[in-house]
Amino acid sequence: MQTRYATNPEQIPGFDTAALRDRYLVEGLFVDDGATAVYTHHDRVVLVGVKPVSGPVTLPPYPEIRSDYFFEHREAGIVNVGGSGRATIDGESFEMATGSCLYVGMGAASVEFESDAAAEPARLYIFSAPAHTRYPTTLVPAGGGIRRELGDPLTSNRRTLNQYIHENGVRSCQVVMGVTELHPGNMWNTLPAHTHDRRTECYLYFGLPDEARVVHILGEPTETRHLVVANEQAIIAPSWSVHSGVGTASYSFVWAMAGENQSFDDMDGFAISDMR
Prior knowledge:
Blueprint: E1 2-4, H1 17-24, E2 25-26, E3 34-40, E4 45-51, E5 57-58, E6 74-80, E7 85-89, E8 92-96, E9 101-104, E10 111-115, E11 124-130, E12 138-140, E13 146-150, E14 159-165, E15 176-182, E16 188-189, E17 193-195, E18 199-206, E19 214-220, E20 223-229, E21 234-237, E22 244-247, E23 252-259, E24 268-270
Parallel strand pairs: 1-3
Antiparallel strand pairs: 2-21, 3-4, 4-11, 5-10, 6-9, 6-11, 7-8, 7-10, 9-12, 13-14, 14-15, 15-23, 16-22, 17-24, 18-21, 18-23, 19-20, 19-22
């Protein structure tokens, strides 16, 4: 498990590209037969990538979280961005097709992931936050939950937003999670750009061709920077940072938040004309 310490907006002007990538970009999440983790002190979120290839992969009790097992004091949302597979939680199996989302509640002691033998390996993206009570483990199929159609082809941001874990859907202590799919020919996500000073949000970009990239905008609205992001890389967006991007091809992304509340619409938008 890699540790990323919290940052504040006053540091942004002094960061070069390497410093920005070290603090906010998560690369190499999906390693064959591994469970790669990053712990950020922004809202104490943990990101994990699991890629079972030759057999099942068990989620370990990382020593950095000081727990006997991963979910002793935590909950998580999990989205499969790879081939079909399954998650086994305390002996109960959940089939996870591509794009499906699984909420795992606090107290799950045994967690194992496996890929279907005839398919490409599953790639399970885990977004975890501290929890204070137990909610039931719940599977949402790809495209399930609440669907919202947003944007306009004229502004290149027509997209379908799938809300999976949220205050009016699958219950959690503080995790909010979903998947946004850009329609073909559309490249901009999350317009207008916004902050929500009460939550940390992380993006995992996926479905992006190998040669394509997303230019992700971060920082305060009046002091923005950018990161060039490849397929299946994640961004940590502190509560004070905008998070928006434009791709060289259409793509999808997993968005997930944790913090003060679970209201999806609790955000402060900024017109592109006001950003610098």
